[in-house]
Amino acid sequence: MRLKVNPQWHVIAILAAVVVVGFRAGTILSHSAWSSGKETTQGKIEDIQESRRIRVIRYSYRVNGAPFSGEETDRKRFLVGLPATVTYAKGDPSVSTLSPEHIEGRYQTSLLIAGLGILPVIVLWCVELAAILRRRQ
After folding, report:
1. Apex CA 109: angle with CA 122 and CA 28, to 5°?
2. In the prediction, which pLDDT does 18 show?
3. Would you give per-residue pLDDT tens digits along the chain (137 residues)?
4. Which of 113, 27, 116, 32 has the alpha carbon at shortest distance from 70?
5. DSSP 7-53
6. Residue 51's Cα: distance from chain center in Å?
7. What does DSSP assign to residue 95?
8. Residue 93 to residue 89: CA distance in whole angstroms
9. Distance in angstroms (rounded) separating the CA atoms of residues 112 and 108
10. What are the angstrom distances between the C-alpha of 34 and each of 12, 15, 60, 92, 123?
11. I need a labelling partner for 127 at 20 to 30 A (CA). Which of 20, 80, 94, 136 fits?
12. How far apart are CA 72 and CA 105, in angstroms?
């Protein structure tokens, strides 16, 4: 069986992988900050934008007098202007969340999605490599 893959499929697969990994890179890269430990502080819900499917919650907090802000999507019922408990990474206070119980799950999900995003590129390269090896025989 001979498989021939047109070059445009390589470009499409690479662009798709870049987009998928790009959307998940922040979660994957910030995960290492959590290894230095977690702290909590009181923050304030600044803004909530919601649609039928998603709620984007923007919040602010202070660590040692320095202001920080964060944003996350969640289905919990936060109200604008009310205090909220913010969990932040001890080593990098700019890495924070309102849902500390989801840190590991988000990281694992991001790794899985990034891996699945790269998979088509790897498959296409393997098909091309097999075709090159067959031509040399």
Report:
1. 80
2. 92
3. 566 667 888 888 889 999 998 989 888 888 888 888 999 999 999 998 888 778 899 999 999 999 999 999 877 778 888 999 999 999 899 999 998 988 899 899 999 999 999 999 898 888 888 888 888 87
4. 27
5. HHHHHHHHHHHHHHHHHHHHHHHHGGGGGG-EEEEEEEEEEEEE-SS
6. 21
7. -
8. 5
9. 6
10. 34, 30, 19, 8, 33
11. 20
12. 14
Whether 86 contacts 43, CB under 8 Å: yes
**Which has the closest alpha carbon to 43: 70, 65, 61?**
61
Q: From edge to edge, which strands make up the β-sheet containing 66-73?
A: 66-73, 55-63, 38-50, 83-89, 96-97
- What are the structure tokens assigned to 44, written together? 């304030």
